[in-house]
# Entry
Amino acid sequence: MGEEGDITRLLQAWSGGDDAALEALSPLIYDELHRLARRAFAGEKKSHTLQPTALVNEAFAKLVHVEVTWQDRAHFFGLAARMMRRLLINYANARATKKRGGDAVNVTLDESAVGGEDTDIRLLEIDAAIDRLAAIDERKARIIELKYFGGLTGRELAEVTGLSTSTLGRELKLALAWLTDELG
# Structure
């Protein structure tokens, strides 16, 4: 059984209450989350993104405390992508609140690795646009979230969504065109 099968087996054992499975699973999950975060941030300027390690540490800490029955590896990493998006948006909101003089919520992500206010505003605009897309087409919004916030490859997207790579390509192209138009 390969690493993907090991992750699924360990997730299911952990869901069943096996704490030893979490111990064996942790390095596999952490390494995979870090790989996904690095890939998601690959095209970004270093001064305009959070460090992948900081994002992964925060997501990992939250994911190990989620009470859910894990179906498989795809289910786990789909939720991980959603959680990373929420963390990035919460962080941008906190920074925007702080810049307006409000009492910002403390977060554990490294602020020195983040760009300026423009980055926060753009991230919030993208998040709002994805939410508007979800109201029109939930599947396209989820694909965008998994691709850009979760850093999933085409093969991984196919595994998580159950769609063929050709359908994913069409859906992604349409979703990106919609978002480009929406964001002006």
Summary: The first helix runs from residue 3 to 15. The helical segments are 3-15, 19-40, 52-63, 73-99, 117-136, 138-149, 154-161, 165-183. Residues 103-116 have pLDDT under 50 and may be disordered.
